[in-house]
Amino acid sequence: MPSPSTADAAGSSNNEAWATILCPHTLLSIENSAAASTFNQILNEQLSREVIARFIRHTIRPKPAVPDHHPSTTSPLAETLELARAGLKLAFASLSAFLQANVTGPVLASPQSFEAVFLELISSSREPEDATDTNDDPNHERTMRSFRSSCQRSLDTDGVSPYPHVPYIELFCLARFLLVTDDLLPGARSIGIANHLAWSRLRVHLWHYKLLTQPSLGSGSLYTKSGRWTDVATLEESIQTNLADAETALFGVGAASEASSDSAWPSESQVLYRLEEANCHILLGNDIKAHQALQDATRIRGFTYALSGALGKRTRFQESSFSQLVVLAKSADSSSESTDEQTDKETLPASLSLNDDTLLEKIQFNDDEPPNSASSLPVELQNIKPDSQPKLHPVDQIILLTEATIKDTFSPSDSLTLEEILPYAVRVIDDKSVNWQIYTQALLVRSRIELNRSRTVERGVLQMQAVTDQVIADTQDLSPPTATQEQDSVSDVPGIVVTSDGDSTTHINTAKPTSFLPAPKPSESATPEERLRYVNALASPPRWHLESELAYAWTSVGSLVSALEIFKRLRLWPEVALCLATAAASDEASGRGAGGEEKARAIVRWQLFKGSETAESSVELSDAADHEDKIDINAIKPRDFYGPERSPPPPNAPRLFCILGDMENDTSHYMRAWEISNRRFSRAQKSLGELYLQNKEWDKARQAYQQAVGVNRLSTELWNRLGDIELRLGHFPDASEAFQRAIATANEKPRRKRERRRRRKKKLEKKKKS
Q1: Which of 32, 450, 475, 512 has its CA at a distance of 20 to 30 angstroms from the CA of residue 245?
Q2: Would you give the DSSP letter of residue 101?
Q3: The whole model's pTM is what?
Q4: Mind listing the domains of the chain with CATH numbers?
Q5: pLDDT tens digits for 191-216?
Q6: What local confidence, expressed as pLDDT, does residue 505 receive?
Q7: Cα 64 from chain centroid?
């Protein structure tokens, strides 16, 4: 039995060893080393394979595992630290590879190699009685599909499931397992410096939240607005907790709006964290906090910018110059910005021309306009000409795009607001040297603005189509076609196809992405390191969300058919159903909408229920997932799917039941959505309450909303609605309490953050005294 002094010395030594691993300098060096190495090299290291084996056992059998006994000549602590370092490197590399495959591109190199590693370790982790299953699966396709399904289910939160067709979802789950759980860092939670990992955990939680957000056909389909419609209170609380922990790690106890000289993190990391925090609040719908985080990032950077006016001409036939809005900006280190990042214009995505018969491509500012000595502009900006501005640092360009995103997300969509937002994106696009991903985001921001103007809507839709095509081609097309293959490829021009009676030509091609732009040459494509460098600081959407936003853009110009085809290719069946129902409602007056809602009901029922015994469908529909590529939505009918529920239920079954309840006005569907989510899906009770309100069943509506706020106590909308119902029933004290809760939810998170800071400050004071 060791003496207390010996035990204290050993504990102190352990803490110092863990502090060395978890200090910012080491974490940054590990992350940089992961970026410098290829993913397959990291994956095939011996320690990485041991870590992956732990992850696979945790995913396949989520229960306490037997401790591993690895032969080693080192001490247990040294072995644990070595494994932790390898695990952190693997976590950073896995998350980067996942984002490269789903957000930025280019295509991952040799994905079959790391799939082979996973398959090998999955086979070795199986129980003996399950070993015979591999004999029936010689190509291991079913094994990998089953493992990815387990990974998908592990991400379900409060009855909400991620997009079911996320490529390489196991890479994200691996990074989440290594950074969020305590399996890799036993005992490190008790060390204060372990909070330095809170930033990495925050990134994982944020991307988890982004995977759960659902597109729609309304204004919520804009990626920056989609988060507020996602009811996952459990994950939101984790994000808020990690926000507070990460801020403490970077800036110490208390808020910091300037670079902290005492912080172990470099100033650039502090700025990037503030930008990530701003985008986090944008996604969660907190405009005030997003503005504050952006202002803090601007102050730390020393960046100066302003929205001002300058005389110029906008149209081709304009004779007199009028004041035009322009963003003037100058980086603090403008003398050396060109050395940080040099990007050839040929490697940037294509920016389409406006080609309008009235509007000029760019505003022509007056060259002879004298500088205004009495200007209210900052001193740094007073001598800058609008059409000849200095280059910006990439981080400063992100600040401008974040400012535009905040205004676009939280401001009313009117002509004045759009005029204020567009100059921010134009300033970044017109810059002479930009990062590939930043330039892509700038084009996307400009497209969102131009969709709301009649003169620019055509360029807005086509530019978003071009950006989407670029991202799809960079994340899906495994090999660029050669000139011979391009000549021999099948033409996309529609042709006449002769079919027999009963056959259908409707099919879904999910393998080949289409584009109306020529494929970029290898020299015209940016490196993965350049694309991933600022991906967390930008509000870059995953590719399926980008395609969904494109579908919404097509609906804005009246092309519901194009939106429907995009949703069918993505196999987003709830959106397909809603698109059909929307088309039916919009065409009902002209008599062309007949059958749309019927098809929508059939699609939802096909996903939720097995076929009826008297089904007349020509396709065998025993398993919806196995026939998604073959289904003809024009052939199925609602009456064909009144069989028993599918087991297991499809992803996002609670949402599908709510959509079916909206279509059939059946309370049993909402109740089933509530039960199948283990009473965590607040939208089920919200929809049920709205149905009761339509039927003027006030007491039942009150009970439904009480259950909704019981699982999502952070929703201001739910508390306000409950207050309205209580007011209608004459329950004035209860109505007052509900409205007070609605007001308090806006201040509850800052109050909890202040309480955590006070507790941490007291702990630090006690440590200093001791």
Answers
A1: 32
A2: I
A3: 0.83
A4: 13-67+75-212 (no CATH), 303-368+386-478+510-540 (no CATH), 600-762 (1.25.40.10)
A5: 555 577 889 999 999 999 999 876 65
A6: 46
A7: 31
